[in-house]
Amino acid sequence: MKHNIDELGWPSLIDVQPAAGLIPISLRKQAERLDALAHETLFRTGDPVRYVYLVISGEARLVRLARNGSEAILQRSRGGFIAEASLDSRSYHCDAITTEPTTILLVPAATFRAALEEDPMFRRAWQSQLAKEVRKLRAQCERLSLNKAADRINHYIESEGVNGVLTLYQSRMSWAAELGLTHESLYRTLRRMQDDGVLDVDGARLVTKS
Amino acid sequence: MKHNIDELGWPSLIDVQPAAGLIPISLRKQAERLDALAHETLFRTGDPVRYVYLVISGEARLVRLARNGSEAILQRSRGGFIAEASLDSRSYHCDAITTEPTTILLVPAATFRAALEEDPMFRRAWQSQLAKEVRKLRAQCERLSLNKAADRINHYIESEGVNGVLTLYQSRMSWAAELGLTHESLYRTLRRMQDDGVLDVDGARLVTKS
DNA sequence: CGTACTTTTGAATCGCATCAAATCTGGTGG
DNA sequence: CCACCAGATTTGATGCGATTCAAAAGTACG
Predict the structure, then answer these.
(1) pTM (two decimals)
(2) How are strands ordered across the β-sheet holding A205-208?
(3) Which residue has the higher pLDDT, A171 or B29?
(4) Nucleotides of C under 7 A from a protein CB
(5) Residue B99 pLDDT
(6) Which chain A residues are Cβ-neighbours of B174 within 8 angstroms?
(7) How many Å apart are CA B8 and CA A208, to the nearest integer?
(8) A145: exposed, middle or buried (C-beta count within 10 Å: 0-12, 13-18, 19+)?
(9) What is the reported pLDDT for A26?
(10) Which of A22, A148, B52, B180 sits CB 3.0–4.6 Å from B107 for a disulfide?
């Protein structure tokens, strides 16, 4: 179900989601709100690009299905844009799904492009956002080119956590997929790292100790 | 050695390198040309961002050295920008090197940023460039999360080649590193794929036959 | 309470990394 | 021109580590 965001009754978007603060007021007025359940499809490969999607709460993912049926996670967004790089494409080249109940802000793509032309602050923020995504993806590539599970885990904690401490906002199964590992492999490696005393695991809190 | 690009005696940059055509004339006048040998360092981790680097000919790479001494290739540019995403950073978080004699256009970062503010065409081209880089990196991540060498090779040919045909512009050793494989593994897999009749290898020309 | 999913452990297998070494290649200097 | 060298290419043998298949136990939720 879509709502006009003026119906919100939320605190200001800025409080809820920093990225939303970057969107000019004029743009927010034209945005709609979408409350999606878990495992809903936002768009599919080949769909025309109609909206810019901003995840307010919950989680959305870009996925692509390989021939053998395995699923690659191309992006995982919890608060922030999803499929930013499609803004200058006609259509999508992957699918977007939710993994849990998720609230999304839909900004019409044409309106969004116009705002980029007119609002210098917004434009800088957008460029900065794209650059940040590039750096994040480079880190991900670097991580995936490590071929030991423990190395990938450490790399993830170093680059996504703060000072060797990481709070995980996803199940280990999903994390395993993001790390390019099977879940069995991840579980076993986490266990071994604990036994070896190089990692401290307390629920979703992971601390490197080396 | 750096030259003012007016000393060029080149054909127009547009003919040499399409990406350069996106740079406004005013900006080109302030750019310098750098002729680097193979294995030169353009900048190191921590260096302040002074220039935007545009590779005119040859090859530049972003690399990061892991603790164990192995080297991860974060970007490989043959004609086009390198480290685009650093434009909004103070300093670099990886190293840039050349792998062969390379000619580079150095545009002062401040000048570049000013041009982005003032020239709408240029700005759109830049955003499009960043978006393209994002898509390319997503493809790279998807590829690295395949765990069979043959799958990565096929994926590379599909996404970097045209209609299942790819011309390789680097040694197989470098390609192996980009694919996240050892060179031995790559050689053996290429051989096996040929023997199995799913791939045709003729020097730098690779054709999938399945 | 039952169902779906996650977490966990086990055993067997396969593929890649690793180490080693030979051959081939292009470029340099004598 | 040839000897030489550095790097790329190629083949071989071995071991490790991740995948795979299987299954049990734990957990959240209606």
Answers:
(1) 0.88
(2) A165-167, A205-208, A199-202
(3) A171
(4) 5-11, 15-20
(5) 86
(6) none
(7) 53
(8) buried
(9) 78
(10) B52
